[in-house]
Amino acid sequence: MRINLDQAATTRIDPEALDVFYRIERNFPGNPSSVVSTGRAAKKILDDARDSILELLGANSARLVFTSGASESMLIAAERIHRALSSAGYHPKMMTSKAEHSSGLAGAKLFEALGGTCEFIRPLRDGTTTLPEDVDAGYVSLAHTNGETGAITDIRKAAERLRKHGAILHTDVAASIGKVPFDFGDAGAHLASFSAHKFHGPKGVGALIVSRDCPFPEALEPSSVEDGYRSGTVSPALAASMETALRKAVNDLERVAKHLREIRKTLKESLCASGLRPSFHEHENEAFQSPAVLSVAVHGIDARELLVALDLRGVEISLGAACSSLTEKPSRVLEACGIEGAELLASFRLSFSADTSLDDARTAASIIAEECLKRVSV
């Protein structure tokens, strides 16, 4: 039996969410953009899912655009806000962190390709981002939870500052939902992106939440889909399945977060007790640390070799985000945080979910320690 400690990359779909997908796909075959009966029935499924998702995330008064996931959501946000700033007569300028997920950086590249400029903020060592004293950008995009260290940026504090300057704030909450509390209204951001597969929903669906006070133009070629904000037929089955997974994630958050903290504590204590001297990349304040991620460095090892050895023994870890891991290079995010040299080469990420048991954590920690001890003198 394999032990998956790479669940920040994706999670197993919840059985109830899968059942909902199959039921809707079988029984509601219509196109939700169609005016005929089957289309109207499909659209009701879609609209009910939309309303429920907004309520669950404290965004009742906002819009929700269904997308294929957070990556697409961030690209849409970058393009629309660039257009909104240009239309208002401003030179579009964006600000983001060097420690963002690759999809966040893709949004920045698109913003620049459209003629805007982007300033990259150097993150703190734990992966959080503090805005500079002078913010002259009209658009700022920051992750709520860093996907590699699990450290949480105070989005509410950033939003309060940016709204005073008239700037638009987007936050990536893909690594937050189901692990740490997030309320869109309380956070104060203008936009938020997420993917269902990060919280036991199906792959291929996510959303972009847009506050009503956010300037957000329609697509260049608007259609009847998603009120003109996105082209392409939306799957009611995927939307309803995502809503089911999200409802369970929100309702079970307190219980799951407690379990995740126990997993994280077990891994840390077991690794430290093994004779290794690991260091951890994390927020010093537990209130600003996701319980679902543990970023570890074991000095003297090559984490790339460790990943292969562990995979052969049935334990799955990662060097960083799945969207970057195929390069087999040390984590770009950790490097952006100022971690370098031997420590960077020795760093790896352990991530877990409600599916991870304490026995899994103990067994994995033992195997990780054994493989590390083969490679380093302590």
Number of domains: 2
General shape: globular
Strand content: 5-15%
Which CATH top level class of the largest domain fits? Alpha Beta
If you compute it from the alpha carbons, what radius of gyration comes out, rounded to the nearest whole angstrom?
Answer: 21 Å
Task: Write structural notes for this entry.
The structure is a single chain. The chain has 378 residues and is α/β, with parallel strands linked by helices. The protein has two domains: 3-11 and 253-375, Aspartate Aminotransferase, domain 1 (Alpha-Beta Complex); 15-251, Type I PLP-dependent aspartate aminotransferase-like (Major domain) (Aspartate Aminotransferase, domain 2, 3-Layer(aba) Sandwich). The protein is 42% helix and 14% strand. The protein is built from 13 helices and twelve strands. It has a seven-stranded mixed sheet, with helices on both faces. Strands 9-10-12 form a three-stranded antiparallel sheet. Strands 1-11 form a two-stranded parallel sheet. Helix 6 (184-187) links the parallel strand 6 (168-172) and strand 7 (191-195). Helix 1 (15-27) runs antiparallel to helix 7, helix 3 (70-87) packs parallel to helix 4 (102-113) and helix 8 (253-273) runs parallel beside helix 13 (358-375). The radius of gyration is 21 Å and the shape is globular. The two termini are 30 Å apart. The mean pLDDT is 94.
